[in-house]
Amino acid sequence: MLSNQYSITEVKQIIGAEGEIINDDIISVLLTDSRKINTGAEGLFFALSGRRNGHEFIAEAFAAGVRNFVVKEGPEIKLPGANFLIVYDVLTALQTLTRHHRERFNLQVIGITGSNGKTIVKEWLYQLMAADNNIVRNPKSYNSQIGVPLSVWQINEKSDLGIFEAGISLPGEMEKLEAIIKPGIGVLTHLGTAHDEGFETTRDKVLEKLKLFRRCSLLIHNYDQLVDYQNDIPATTCFTWSRNFKQADLFVFSETIIKKNYYLRAQYKGHEIECLIPFLDQASVENAIICWATLLAIGYSPEETDKRLERLSPVSMRLELKTGVNDCSVIDDTYNSDFHSLEIALDFLNQQNQHKKKTLILSDIYQSGLQEDALYKQVADLIKSKKVDKFIGVGEALLSHRDYFDIPEKYFYTDTTELLNNLLTVGFKSETVLIKGSRSFEFERVSRALVQKTHETVMEINLNAMLNNLNYYKSQLRPGVKLMAMVKAFSYGSGTFELANMLQYNKVDYLAVAYTDEGIGLRQAGISMPIMVLNAEQSAFDKLVEYKLEPVLYSFGLFDDFIKYVQRNDIVNYPVHLKIDTGMRRLGFEPLEVEMLCDLLEENKFLRIVSIYSHLAASEAAEHDEFTHGQIDKFKTATAQLEECLGYNVIKHILNTSGITRWSSAQFDMVRLGIGLYGIDAAIPADNAALQPITTLKTSISQVKKVVAGDTVGYGRKGVMQRDGRIATVRIGYADGYLRAFGNGVGKMYVNGIVTPTVGNIAMDMCMIDVTEVDAKEGDEVIVFNEQHRIEDLATQIGTIPYEILTNISQRVKRVYFYE
Ligand SMILES: *Cc1c(COP(=O)(O)O)cnc(C)c1O
């Protein structure tokens, strides 16, 4: 048997499961997500319980061909021919199985942990050592309690070096990861001071991380970071580096910038050695020093190490979704290409519903550790199972294996230039195109050709961060409480179908938009889940029904109009929602009107009331808690009355984002999550790590000018220079959503990390900032807001709220969605 094939009987024994085995199948693929199953053959599905019980997905996995399951409880319905291994804890079983797998191989393993830089250091160590080893490593940043087992499962008899990163957020987690990775060499990356929810003190957190090195004979770490932990370091030998302490094994004493490279000199074994790093930012420099130390520690010569470090290439774990030419969407993943990251990128392609047609542009894959034949056979099978409609292969190897690819439409080219010369022949229109290539193919040229050019102010949206926020709020809900995501106003300015796709894929229960048009846009982009429309206009009822959108009825007038409409069209049981005004005094039936509403409802079979809701006016504010209590009470009374006269139960909901945070007793059957998805919650302090900001707004400098004291800048000569200095003109103005209120020093932007206030009035398409203190030049990036410089701060500067800042960003600002 191949090294990662196991018979199901064997698995049962390893994980100590109960349950009867019907067929002694062979398994080789571990599955944890029913949405991502390509082929059920040889798959073993672990029904992990998150908020949604993994057991609900068993049927889906079964339909995809899976016949072997690890579960906590047997399924309610009979699934013929399926084996169910019953265990006390499904995650533990996954970990036990992979721990067993790891034990069978005697390869060298490097284990990496720290607060920042784990993935970069892992990928760089891979780049640096791939020439001499057959390396197995985590795909992307799969470093969690689930990600690590799935990564380690890839070890096979050909692997001779493992490089695995481990990430933790709670006490007790590292011990489990250590047992699965079992590293013999440890690497500790940067330890941040970030506030960690799961730990009482920083010391506790560091001690937990150090547990990864329990059995290491060698640990590479920054001397300075562990000064206070000398007695806690478990490894027998340490190789230390430092920029401050001479006693470190690698003492970096000089750092200079030479032609866009970072030049480092250090003391090592009594000699002076050097290296050149092709990056300038401090995080990259630190990560590169860690790699430098690691290579030296494991025996590479200083000369060889220097030679390899010089050729490091940036690691982009990002999959970017951009607007393409000819109504295409483009997923840009042009930095790396290996089998597992291809699989992940294809899943992302599959999440996109906005176009029917799905296209993949792929380059040859290097350093897979497999024979070409076997590799491209696997690649062809994967692409077929992911239902790619059109395939463009670039490179000699793909060209010579073209017959493997059973895809309706396919093209092959020897190199990138040939593809670029043939773009018209291939033709791209209304399709989603995934561009995935090894670094040397320079696929960014392909991406440039296919992505729509717009002006250079960009809003970036981090889909992982959004998922994190979604999961955070889900974790606050009682079991069974549904979640409606508010994607009105272009998803609070962050996009249309891109976010909705992500929410649909992650199985939120409902979406809500403000107007019928927004709902139609989502349907046209392939969103099939239920959508509630807050303000359904009478003139658009036809469209509303055609696109299966569910209106909110909030007044007798609208109720009457809609009833007449459905009666006229012989529609029965149309799903609608009722809104009760419990104190916002905006839309909704008044509590006093509920009785009359009941009378109307009793005689009516044309409508099916799906849900009843109300909206809190001040859920975030403690000083209004009494009022909020009152709203909740009124809501309870009204819904009880309505359910009684309807004779059936409906979904009841009243909480918005801050309500979820502060009023957990009022979750009823569903909550409506809005701005929290974007990482903002007035009831949670901005520095709380539970939420992550998802948007970055950035622009660039079009010109830099010298000015002298007394010069005036911009319209109306409002900006008067108090001293000699320099100003930069940047490509953002009030038409982009950078409001005039930010003018004259109120607004602040960031250039190369340094704060630069605005000078003079904000113009329509541009504005000026004071860059006297910054080394700024044309083309430099300018940050308006991001993770560090928060939207909340901008809002405070001009006396507004984050909602307004976000929704003001105009449509001409290009949105780029990325996924790490
Ligand atoms: C916008 C909106 C929400 C979401 O509010 P957040 O404060 O952004 O969470 C909830 N309910 C209704 C009716 C809304 O209009």
**Span between termini:** 35 Å
Total discrete domains: 5
Strand content: 15-25%
Which molecules are bound besides the chains?
Answer: pyridoxal-5'-phosphate
Low-confidence stretches: none
- The CATH architecture category of the largest domain equals Alpha-Beta Barrel
- Measured as a percent range, the helix fraction is 25-40%
CATH homologous superfamily designation of the largest domain: Alanine racemase
What count of helical segments does DSSP give? 26
Level-1 CATH class name of the largest domain? Alpha Beta
Function: Catalyzes the interconversion of L-alanine and D-alanine. May also act on other amino acids.
Pfam families: Ala_racemase_C, Ala_racemase_N, Mur_ligase_C, Mur_ligase_M
Keywords: ATP-binding, Cell cycle, Cell division, Cell shape, Cell wall biogenesis/degradation, Cytoplasm, Isomerase, Ligase, Nucleotide-binding, Peptidoglycan synthesis, Pyridoxal phosphate
Catalytic activity: L-alanine = D-alanine
Structure commentary:
Pathway: Amino-acid biosynthesis; D-alanine biosynthesis; D-alanine from L-alanine: step 1/1. It comes from Mucilaginibacter panaciglaebae. The longest helix is centred in the last third of the chain and has 22 residues. The chain has five domains: 85 residues, Udp-n-acetylmuramoylalanyl-d-glutamate--2,6- Diaminopimelate Ligase, Chain: A, domain 1; 167 residues, 3-Layer(aba) Sandwich (UDP-N-acetylmuramoyl-L-alanine:D-glutamate ligase), CATH 3.40.1190; 100 residues, Mur ligase, C-terminal domain (Protein-Tyrosine Phosphatase, Chain A, Alpha-Beta Complex), CATH 3.90.190; 219 residues, Alanine racemase (TIM Barrel, Alpha-Beta Barrel); 125 residues, Lyase, Ornithine Decarboxylase, Chain A, domain 1 (Beta Barrel). The protein has a nine-stranded mixed β-sheet with strand order 8-9-7-10-11-12-13-14-15. The protein is an alpha/beta fold and 820 residues long. The model has no long low-confidence stretch (mean pLDDT 91). It contains 26 helices and 39 strands. The site of pyridoxal-5'-phosphate has 11 residues, from strand 30.
